[in-house]
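Pasting as-is:
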Amino acid sequence: MLGPEMTLAAALRDAAHADGNVRAAGVRNLAPALLAELQRPGPAWRADEDHAQGSEVRAALERALVDGDPQVRGLAAVGLGVLGRSEVVDVVEAWIEKSGEDPASEFLRETAIIALSFVGTAAPVDEQRPLRAAIAARLREALASTFPDVRFQAALALVEVEGEAATTALLAALARESHDRVREQIVVALAHLPALDEVACARLIDLVHSDEEGPSAIGLEAALALAASGHAEGALRLVAALRDRTCRDRALEALAVIGPKVPPEAVRAIAKLARGWLTPPITRVRAAYAWAAVQDARDRADHPANRLLRRLAWHPRPAVREAVADARRALAQPAPGPDPAPAA
């Protein structure tokens, strides 16, 4: 979660404002501001109990939970979720299948899923095992909701609560899902897992090689997920992504993770970007980093990628110099081990 946009005092003041937009901003900042004063990341289980004004914050959120403005109600539910208040679970249950295609109904459905995921994530694993299991079960049900917005939110929420145990449910949801945006989000959720098993990797490889979905956004997300798990099967899809300004930086990072296992086409494409005078400077830094990584040139000072990084370290823009420093730190780390065997 992000830090607060205002102090706790300001959030408490604005949460009672007559203007709905001001009130929504105050409610949105109540939980983050409280956690900031506690210097604690969220979501955090019953964090309000550890702050002198915690009862005041909780009361303000509970009042907002029955506000006449749907935006305020949804933000209040998220805030209570951030503070790990399990009482919000019963309230938002009724929102998840709230009918209507209007923005207010969609917002309440989506914030309900977010609030559930926050409570499930905050709940202590041992002390609140039944609660976590109940929330995970509800999120698995949400993956089959009639509403695409609910299915979209549920994919990543389930990963946050269940971790690798969510794999089977996500793959089943992907097999039956027809909505393009939701399919893409399921793949994004799979990429957030700490590890992918052979079945999940095989499904992602199918997507990358699909004539229909491989060239699309879902094919790119599948390639990125495979790279994060050490598989090189999506490398050529990542090479294709280098031609797209909107995603080439992500593709470069993924190719660097794959390392020397990338095909020669990838090395050539990366080198071309790194050498290109019209390539934006920070992208050139990322390309130089990827170039060194895929050619195992971490310790080769004479490699063109490392020479380029030395030159870019003198760039007039501080952001570029900082990117070079980040690249050098990454290259100083030991190279990752060999790629796992491809899935059958």
